[in-house]
Amino acid sequence: MLDRLDDPGQPVTTALESLLHDTAPSLLGYFLYRVDVAEDAADLVNETLIAALKSARRTPAEPEAARMWLFGIARNVLRHHHRSKARRDALTQRLAEALDYSPEHGDDTHDVRAAVAALPEQLAELIRLVHWDGFSIEQAAQHMGINPSTARSRHARAKELIRLHLEPAHEAPESRSKSDRIR
What we know:
The protein is mainly alpha-helical. The protein folds into two domains: about 10-90, Rna Polymerase Sigma Factor, Chain: A, CATH 1.10.1740; about 100-180, Arc Repressor Mutant, subunit A. It has seven helices and no strands. α1 (about 10-30) crosses α3 and α6 (about 135-145) crosses α7. The longest helix has about 35 residues, at about 65-100. The protein is elongated and about 60 Å long. The model is unreliable at about 1-10 and about 175-183 (pLDDT under 50).
């Protein structure tokens, strides 16, 4: 039986470590059924364990109540994960719309992320700051320690590189209008 965690005779971590050790496989199963990527499930278990350790003094004394408390933390971690994923996907969609990109088939989130990842790091960071984090170009420039006019030209260049990356491979550059070509 789990001793009270606020018992001065028992370190907080001993009782909680036992609870975490016994419950971790169940937590992994809980997350595996609720997320698309198995690696995310493992990360969410870790986040849950960290949150539980931070709140160790609030762990109930009764074993079943302690287990339910831990699953309550897991539920909150999962909610946060889904909110974050929804935000990332919405920001990726905004970036795709800003680039006037509409995929012919399926989900474009992966394609846009791959296109941003293919950019040189300075350009990728600028795109992330502006389109994913909601900074203005001037704010992003300040954050990156560059001149705002430099940021504007880099932003335009980054968008063009992303467009080129997202164009279907069979589309020849001649099929693009003159105003769409790099100058």
